[in-house]
Amino acid sequence: MNEISIPRPNNLDAYWMPFSNNRAFKQNPMMLARAKGMFYYTPEGREVIDGTAGLWCCNAGHGRTEITEAIQKQAAVMDYAPTFNMGHPIAFEAAARVAEMTPDGMDRVFFTNSGSESDDTALKIALAYQKAKGQSSRVRLIGRERGYHGVGFGGMSVGGIGGNRRQFGGQLPYVDHLPHTHGLKENFFAKGMPEHGAFLADKLEDLVALHGADTIAAVMVEPVSGSTGVLVPPVGYLKRLREICTKHGILLIFDEVITGFSRIGAPFGCERLEVIPDMITMAKGLTNAAVPMGAVAVMNEVYDTVVNNSPAGIELFHGYTYSGHPLAAAAAIASVDIHQKEDLAGRVRDIEPYWEQAAHSLKDAPNVVDIRNFGLIAGIELSSRPGAPGARAMDILRSCFDDGLLVRVTGDIIALSPPLIIEKPHVDRIFNTLGDALRKAA
Ligand code: PMP
């Protein structure tokens, strides 16, 4: 128990919680009131180890004073400045610092406020790029089944999660999907990248044959799908996608909202995976989630094409009131500083073998049907209870929370993605608590 307690709210009705079972929540609310380093604390002060870095976002650990102080300092200097045809110094500095982390030749950064906005922004840039190249017929966007690209109409349409789409009627037209890469039995319990499945990238050739390359603007995928259950790309798969995109003049967009900011052992995942896309979308770790911010980094050629080939006037008719917000820019600079000074990507690579071994130690735990891992991510897939998909994992989440561990669930998959400052005893605590919960539930 920690001595500081924070009162629970009296009114649980006013706040409509996102992506939540609002009715169930009110019966037995799980709440977090404070956070520091690797830990959250409940309103009563009970310690909960953070197995998920918030939502894959507090990569440098909670409550980093470098970041909170940078935000406070900037708030006192200038709270806000308008964004259209008007600049403020810290946004330029933040863009240049983000570009230090992206691959060579990808030095142009467009700021947004979230992953969803970044994904929709990247899709719009792709369309503007093709148009600026004189290829106005390239309006088709290709995503992937089980892809998650946020909740805007662009990302939702290009994404491939039924539950996110079904409630909302029509989707964007001119969208198609590649198959996901998961489910090959020979890949079950693979450590790191699975061996089999590169051939699934060739489905893009089938879509090109179906629609015609001259109708396709871009392909968007997550290098490692996170929120749909940790789907690690098969060896050679992304390279093949890159080759097909290049061959047909299709832009390749990596949604690195999760894999960016050192999560899989490189500043951006593409470097570890040795496949460089034309654009990267990011959010989360960008500011360590201390304030909202997202961004799209684009290859210089993409920027130059849009900016130099557009008629006089505004080149990209897109942006947000809060693009490059001064407080978020300050947080981003402080976050980049931490990633560089503490070599968080190197830390991930150092601890990854230990993490991998600990994750796979649950292989024989009750109801476990698959385990997947890459960088500091792990997915533990459980068999579903007949007629109640997701219920088993939700029970495990609750049990872990009661025992002092925060996990995330998606369907019947338990996803883990701790802060990158994690040490071996934390790894032990996470997997011991989870293993106990699985055994107790059986
Ligand atoms: N893309 C990916 C890969 C994500 O994981 C997420 C969020 N989990 C998003 C986009 C959307 O980000 P946001 O919730 O900030 O809009």
Write the layout of secondary structure elements.
Layout: H1 22-27, E1 34-36, E2 39-41, E3 47-50, H2 53-56, H3 65-77, H4 89-101, E4 108-112, H5 115-132, E5 140-144, H6 153-158, H7 162-165, E6 175-178, H8 203-211, E7 216-221, H9 237-248, E8 251-255, H10 269-273, E9 279-282, E10 294-298, H11 300-309, H12 326-341, H13 344-360, E11 368-374, E12 377-382, H14 391-402, E13 405-406, E14 408-410, E15 413-416, H15 424-441
Parallel strand pairs: 3-13, 5-6, 5-7, 7-8, 8-9
Antiparallel strand pairs: 1-2, 2-3, 4-10, 9-10, 11-12, 12-15, 14-15
Helix pairs in contact: 3-12, 4-12, 5-11, 13-15, 14-15
4'-deoxy-4'-aminopyridoxal-5'-phosphate binds next to helix 5.
Overall pLDDT score: 97
Share of residues in helices: 25-40%
CATH class of the largest domain: Alpha Beta
CATH architecture of the largest domain: 3-Layer(aba) Sandwich
Percent in strands: 5-15%
Poorly predicted segments: none
GO molecular function, one term: pyridoxal phosphate binding
Protein name: Aspartate aminotransferase family protein
Keywords: Aminotransferase, Pyridoxal phosphate, Transferase
InterPro entries: Aminotrans_3 (IPR005814), Aminotrans_3_PPA_site (IPR049704), PyrdxlP-dep_Trfase (IPR015424), PyrdxlP-dep_Trfase_major (IPR015421), PyrdxlP-dep_Trfase_small (IPR015422)
